[in-house]
Design goal:
This protein is an all-alpha fold and 190 residues long. 67% of the residues lie in helices and 0% in strands.
């Protein structure tokens, strides 16, 4: 998020208020600090703590949405200290369902879900492969999903006010979703 902060700001300025890059950068820095400062090993409790730290540092719409997703993931990961690819995919899908439920949104509406949902599905469908391969496939699905938002009309948030003027512009939230998947990939494949 540090490297792409200005790009996310530029994307958000086209159809939003321009705070997306800063919000994501600060939210993920807070998550990183939380992880560095805690002794917690239960992935569910760890994810819940990350969600709280993230939400506090990134009080934007997408910050709240991601925090909701992280809480959905936390419930699935509760009691685990390690998670295999299939368990991560299941947790991601649980988080996505929580976002859809709370934000009343779904893939195809020019949001972060257009990157996250196909990535989580691809991860689930390829969980039996080596982790590096499964996560690479998920990143590619997120990339295609984010790119597909150029042809969508927004249904939520400030971007919805722009209607057809947003056609041809990739959704900043979907790009943030792609960046999240790229970060997960880099973390798994180190």
């Amino acid at each position: 998020m540090d490297d792409k902060c200005l790009y996310l700001v530029e994307l958000d300025q086209q159809n939003g208020d321009g705070d997306l890059g800063i919000s994501m950068k600060e939210g993920f820095k807070a998550a990183e600090r939380y992880i560095g400062d805690t002794e917690e090993r239960d992935l569910g409790r760890l994810m819940a703590g990350i969600a709280g730290a993230f939400n506090e540092a990134a009080p934007s719409s997408l910050g709240t949405i991601l925090s909701i997703g992280m809480m959905g993931m936390a419930k699935t990961l509760k009691g685990k200290e390690k998670a295999q690819t299939e368990e991560v995919a299941t947790a991601l899908l649980a988080g996505i369902r929580k976002i859809m439920e709370r934000a009343h949104s779904k893939p195809g509406e020019k949001t972060i879900l257009d990157a996250l949902y196909p990535a989580a599905e691809a991860l689930k469908d390829n969980a039996e492969k080596r982790a590096e391969e499964a996560y690479a496939i998920a990143v590619e699905a997120a990339r295609r999903g984010a790119e597909s938002t150029k042809d969508m009309l927004p249904r939520h948030g400030r971007a919805a006010y722009y209607g057809e003027k947003s056609l041809g512009i990739v959704d900043g939230g979907a790009v943030a979703g792609l960046l999240i998947l790229e970060g997960i990939y880099e973390s798994v494949c180190r």
